[in-house]
Amino acid sequence: MHNDEPIIGKELKAGDDSPITKNNTGEVLSEGIDGVVAGSEYFSLEVVKVLQERFLHKELKNLPILSVLEKKILCLVLEGRTYYEISSQLGIPYKTVEFHQGNLYIKFNAKNIVDLAKEANQMGVLNITSI
What we know:
Helices cover about 60% and strands about 0% of the residues. It is an all-alpha fold and about 130 residues long. It has 2 domains: about 5-60, no CATH class; about 70-120, Winged helix-like DNA-binding domain superfamily/Winged helix DNA-binding domain (Arc Repressor Mutant, subunit A), CATH 1.10.10. The mean pLDDT is about 75.
């Protein structure tokens, strides 16, 4: 197999659970065969690197970039704190909190606090497992 992401993707979709690229040594090929014979999946280091780069590039490309202050405000807003409580806790003006929350709505394409929490959770910014 070629060391090419689209080809690796097609092979995986076609059911190849142990792709090995052409660039690998005989030792890697032998390890792959041994793994398949043993009933395991085998991914060569080259394939793992291609998949990691693709996954990380695709996943990180869609994440909004948040400033440190926006992250703090996001967490406090989602805890149910008011703008006044947040401004007092962080030692910043009320209008600054309001401004940054507006930016959060834009960055997460949210219309309200529920959308904001949902989008932040789906993007992995928050880790809400159950409510």
